Amino acid sequence: xxxxxxxxxxxxxxxxxxxxxxxxxxxxxxxxxxxxxxxxxxxxxxxxxxxxxxxxxxxxxxxxxxxxxxxxxxxxxxxxxxxxxxxxxxxxxxxxxxxxxxxxxxxxxxxxxxxxxxxxxxxxxxxxxxxxxxxxxxxxxxxxxxxxxxxxxxxxxxxxxxxxxxxxxxxxxxxxxxxxxxxxxxxxxxxxxxxxxxxxxxxxxxxxxxxxxxxxxxxxxxxxxxxxxxxxxxx
Length: 235
Ligand code: CTP
Prior knowledge:
Helix content is 31%, strand content 23%. It contains six helices and 14 strands. The strands form four sheets. The protein has an eight-stranded mixed sheet, with helices on both faces. Strand 2 and strand 3 form a beta hairpin. Helix 1 packs parallel to helix 2 and helix 1 crosses helix 6. The two termini are 23 Å apart. Bound molecules: cytidine-5'-triphosphate. Cytidine-5'-triphosphate binds next to helix 4 and strand 9.
């Protein structure tokens, strides 16, 4: 069997408020980059869609993470492709173009749920009155993709939730988004060196690999893909 072609999204989106300001999510992108490296190491042709990594993150040098991913792309251009995105709309566009050519999507990106509208191309000036920022919801990219995903493709989402009720919230998200698996993480995972994830599969299976570094978890998740594909079937 030929290796699966893996598409990974990582990092935050950043939505412009005006020409100089934006709103974004806190995300280092480190887990997504680690997943891309693990996928390549396991022999999978891999595409990494990487958002604007903001720094400095307490546990890693974001520029170095970014640079290393780009360097890896240069060194092994036949195996790893890196595309950068900034906004949710850009990520949506790139996903639509790339997903049909892949077998597995691992959606680790921290996508904004809301974006400013309108977003003027000039700088909003200081005013003693202040101003009200209007936000519109962004499309749910994963749910959108799920509706057009082929039966031979596998979708893996992420859920970042308070530790209490983590599994219930992740289960609800898995159904709502129509994905084959959800990697559920407690909120404390943000900015942390380690990860203590639960992976929910179709049919109520919950995998608990235990606390480990993000690099170790990335290798574990890539090695677990055959099992995810084996038990999927919610779509
Ligand atoms: N996601 C997405 N499009 C969005 C928001 C999130 O595709 N507009 C994806 C994320 O990449 C992640 C999964 O959906 O894989 C869950 O994201 P999360 O932010 O935890 O969930 P939300 O859909 O934002 O739901 P809630 O606000 O209830 O947490």
